[in-house]
Write a structure and sequence with these properties.
The protein has about 190 residues and is an alpha/beta fold. Helices cover about 30% and strands about 25% of the residues. Keywords: Hydrolase.
């Protein structure tokens, strides 16, 4: 471990925000460069570390109403098609359900800020730094990172606690986008005081 990369964060001013570790996204394949199980394991390690220090932990999930009328339907060149979600698709993975004090945010789009109470909850607690991880790096995590940056939060992005459909996509975001908005670290490079 490179001690020069250890990020020491103030537990009172930092929140862990875990994106979309729910049955559907964890069950999708492929995942690269990390399998979903590794991402969940590292997110649990971070959650435990943050919880032990009394830091604010947020689990974000995406969900829609039964009729789907609250889902986004943009005009795109690659229409998403009509999803056929199985029962329980939007339930957080069991490993996260063990953490009863985490704040749950339900989003209806890629990012976790727009249309949710995330910014309100962070500001009321005096949070100025968000640590992000989850699935998918290029959608939910990246969009939330950009929103956090636009809301003037300091960002720390946990590269080995996120994944997406290809290593190339992950590498592009982690090497080009995230460093311009904050710091890219690994699970073992985060310390709270």
């Amino acid at each position: 471990m490179d001690n020069t990369r250890i990020e020491i964060l103030d537990a009172k001013k930092t929140a862990l925000v875990v994106i979309d570790l729910q049955n559907f996204s964890v069950g999708m394949t492929p995942h690269a460069p990390y399998p979903a199980g590794t991402v969940v394991e590292n997110a649990v390690r971070l959650t435990r570390r943050f919880t032990e220090k009394g830091a604010f932990v947020v689990f974000v999930r995406v969900s829609f109403s039964e009729d789907g009328k609250d889902s986004f339907r943009p005009r795109t060149d690659a229409p998403p098609g009509k999803p056929n979600f199985p029962d329980g698709w939007d339930v957080l993975v069991p490993e996260l359900q063990a953490f009863k004090n985490a704040h749950i945010v339900t989003k209806r789009q890629m990012g976790a800020f727009y249309g949710t109470d995330l910014d309100l909850q962070l500001r009321r607690r005096g949070i100025d730094t968000v640590v992000l991880c989850g699935i998918s790096t290029i959608f939910g995590v990246d969009t939330t990172a950009r929103e956090a940056f636009s809301h003037s939060y300091h960002g720390v992005y946990i590269e080995d606690a996120m994944t997406c459909a290809s290593k190339e996509h992950q590498d592009f975001v982690c090497q080009n986008i995230f460093p311009a908005m904050g710091k890219v670290r690994r699970t073992d490079e985060i310390a709270l005081v």
